[in-house]
Every structure is written in C-alpha cells, then in structure tokens.
C-alpha cells in the first residue's frame, strides 16, 4: 500500500530534519521539495496555502485514527517529528517514562526549540545592531552558555541521551549545522560537538537526506562552514 505521508521540504531549512527522520526510521514517504525565494530567502508563496505559519516543515498525512480517515496538514518541527514517530515509527526514537534516561531525554527534546534555536534567532537579529548594543551582548552570552552545555553533555555521551540516536538529536543537529548558513557560529572551541557532528555526518540516513533533499548544499559539519548565502 502506498505511503500516505507527504513531507514538504524547504531547501536549506529545518525541514531537513523531517526528511532525515523518515530515512532513519526507514519508512515510506513522498518528498516534495521547495526552493527559497532568491530575493527574500523566505519560503515561497505555496507555504501560505500549506500552513498558517508559512514556514517549514509541513507534512500531510491521513489520520487513520479518526473514523473518516481525515486528511491532515501539520506544521511545527516537534509536532511533525512526534506524529511520524508515533504513527509510522511505532514510537521509535521517542524515549518513554520508564526508560533510564527519560529525564535527560525530556530536557534535550525540548531544549532545542525552547532555548537554543530561539537564541540563534536572537543572534541573527542582533547582527543588525551595533556591536556595543546590549542585545548583542545578551545574544552572544546566551548562545555561548548553551554551546557550553551541549559540549559538556556530548563530552560524556555519544549522543544527547546515551549511546543511541533519539528524536532529541534529530532536533538538535539543524541549529548546529545548516542554520549556520544564516547564523554564523564558530564551533572551533567545542571538540565534542564537532565529534558528534562528524559521526552524524557518517550516518547513511543523514547522507541520503542530502542526496534527496538538497541540490547544492553540503552538510555544514565543520567548525566554520561556508554559507551558501551572502548577507
């Protein structure tokens, strides 16, 4: 039976994590790729129809749990990841309350979108301010603190939660890699993060993600990768 899952991927965006997730789970899905507007670097107008957020990612699926098998469209990365893991992945990559690392997983699962990624966005906006502006100092201080936390964790653990990849890693890798096309972050002082990214980069599912979903972008796994965009 053909898959009901459609993944709308905006190139050079966090929707890459949804493609990567599907590849890690080994599930059937249809991939639809969209390019950014080359003038604004924003999502194309089609996203206005796909999601009220007008941002990536967006997935479409048939909700087999409803009586009429309703067609759904879903946005927000964490929501898309949880939907796919539960409905198509039999709960894989989502830790359970009885798992030994449940508390750690719960923290890191929410840390990326709750703290780290908003701070990256803060740093992006702060780039337009004078260097001595308080907002610049706050953004840099927070992001350095969060990178220190991630480094400390990965110095003791292969992945964010033990020795197995989880959905928390699927969330975390984008702001440490592709998002740096927009928010330059030097990772030279973080050997454990760089080790982590190198290992992620060797995963067959991660490689396949870029083969399928990106036409020109190479995985941004180095300490100071070159951005495909000029600002």
From TrEMBL:
UniProt domain GST N-terminal: residue ranges: 2-92
Classification via Pfam families: GST_C, GST_N_2
All residue ranges annotated as the GST C-terminal domain in the record: 70-229
Domain of life: Eukaryota
Entry similarity comment: Belongs to the GST superfamily.
The name this protein goes by in its record: Glutathione S-transferase-like protein
Organism this protein belongs to: Aureobasidium pullulans (Black yeast)
């Amino acid at each position: 039976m053909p898959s009901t899952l459609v993944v709308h991927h905006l190139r050079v965006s966090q929707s890459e994590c949804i493609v990567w997730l599907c590849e890690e789970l080994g599930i059937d899905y249809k991939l639809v790729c969209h390019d950014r507007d080359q003038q604004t670097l924003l999502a194309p107008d089609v996203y206005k129809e796909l999601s009220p957020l007008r941002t990536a990612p967006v997935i479409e699926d048939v909700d087999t749990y409803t009586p009429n098998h309703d067609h759904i469209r879903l946005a927000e990365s964490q929501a898309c990841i949880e939907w796919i893991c539960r409905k198509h992945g039999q709960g894989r990559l989502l830790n359970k309350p009885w798992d030994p690392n449940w508390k750690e997983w719960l923290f890191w699962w929410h840390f990326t979108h709750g703290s780290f990624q908003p701070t990256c966005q803060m740093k992006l906006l702060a780039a337009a301010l004078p260097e001595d502006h308080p907002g610049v100092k706050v953004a840099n201080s927070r992001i350095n603190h969060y990178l220190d936390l991630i480094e400390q964790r990965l110095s003791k653990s292969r992945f964010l939660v033990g020795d197995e990849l989880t959905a928390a890693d699927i969330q975390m890798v984008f702001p440490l890699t592709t998002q740096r096309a927009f928010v330059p972050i030097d990772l030279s002082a973080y050997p454990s993060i760089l080790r982590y990214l190198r290992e992620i980069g060797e995963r067959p599912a991660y490689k396949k993600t870029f083969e399928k979903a990106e036409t020109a972008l190479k995985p941004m796994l180095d300490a100071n990768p070159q951005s495909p965009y000029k600002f």
